[in-house]
Structures are given as C-alpha cells and as structure tokens.
Design a protein that fits this description.
The chain is of the alpha+beta class. The chain has one domain (53-199): Beta-Lactamase (2-Layer Sandwich), CATH 3.30.450.40. 50% of the residues lie in helices and 20% in strands. The chain has 6 helices and 6 strands. It has helices at 3-11, 19-50, 55-70, 108-116, 135-141, 174-199; strands at residues 74-80, 86-91, 100-101, 120-122, 143-153, 156-166. A 6-stranded antiparallel sheet has the order 3-2-1-6-5-4, sandwiched between helices. A hairpin with a 5-residue loop joins strand 1 (74-80) and strand 2 (86-91). Helix 1 (3-11) packs antiparallel against helix 2 (19-50) and helix 3 (55-70) packs antiparallel against helix 6 (174-199).
Length: 200
Amino acid sequence: MSSTELEQVATERPSGEAPDATANLRKRIAELEGERDRLMAVVDILIEISGASHFVDILRIVTHRLGQTFGLDRCSIYLIDDQRDARVMASSDEPGLTNLRVDLERYPELKHVLESGETVFIPDVHVDPVLRGMGAVLALRNVRSIVVVPIQWRSAVIGAILLRTERGAAPFSEHDVHFCQAIAALTANALRNAHRAKGK
C-alpha cells in the first residue's frame, strides 16, 4: 500500500471512530514514512561511499546526505588529529571546508562526545544544562536541537558527527539518534577501508 493510500485510509474514518484513533494512525504513517526515508538514505550513502577512495570525499558524502535527509541547518564531521585536536573535516553548509581546527571550549557537547565516547542528544538547546550559559550564542545561530554521535575505530573515539536543526524546525527524535549512530558506524567502516586501500 502506498503512502497516498495509507493517508486515504486515515482520512476515511468510520463513523463512531474516535478522532484520537485517526490522529494516532496519521502519526504512525508519518513514522513509517520517516523510517523508509532513513533506510533509503542508508542505501544511498552506502552506494556513494563505496565508490569514494579518499577519506575527505567519504566525509563530504555523509554530511551532504545527512543534511538532505533531515533538512539540516548544519551537519559536520570532526576528526581528532595526532595532537588530539579536533578538526572540521567536512560540513554540509560549507562543502569546501576541511581540516579546520576548532576550539572545543566553544562546543561543550562535542567535547563531551570526543572525551567520553557517549552520544549527546539535546532536543532543545535552550533548556539543556550541558549548554547553560550559551543561550545568547545559540540564539544568534538560531539553533534548536543537536545530536552528536561518536565515530569509533577499534573502540577508540576518532571523531564525531554533529547535526543541528534551526529553531523553527522539528526537533530530533530518538529514532533519528539511532539512525545517526548507524551512519557513524558506516562512516567508521568506510574510513577504515579507505585507510587499508591507501596502504596497499
């Protein structure tokens, strides 16, 4: 059954059926369509990164596709260099940007992920204690919701993917977080394969 047919079923509610049931059905349809879109994004990313030989190209593909999937204000990938500094290697809003060192004190959510290896999920930046004191900065950036997931290689954190939505956009959900974690794992595997190919 197509999404159009499903919506028609939701619209044509039998007489006597509670409005809440229709609303729940609509919500479930939206969730299923979101899951479909995420699965298609995974397939697209796998196809594109399989043909990329340089690690920067892989990172640019991932940020571009994630930006498209969520309609993001920004999606960036950071890697840790030999001096343990964090560097932006790819960003959806600046395709030419790469290898730019960042001050982690300005990004406490990113710093926490790189140091702990734990995912950070902030549905609303204006009420989250992690970002306390940064309200003015975030207001200028028009940020609402943030997800940061670690990129790991052999249990070591080598980088992170940072995604954020604008103030007027829908916040990220738990399903979105799990999807981003899966993409981070794919990214780590692609980087590992590119590194091995380079060494041959």
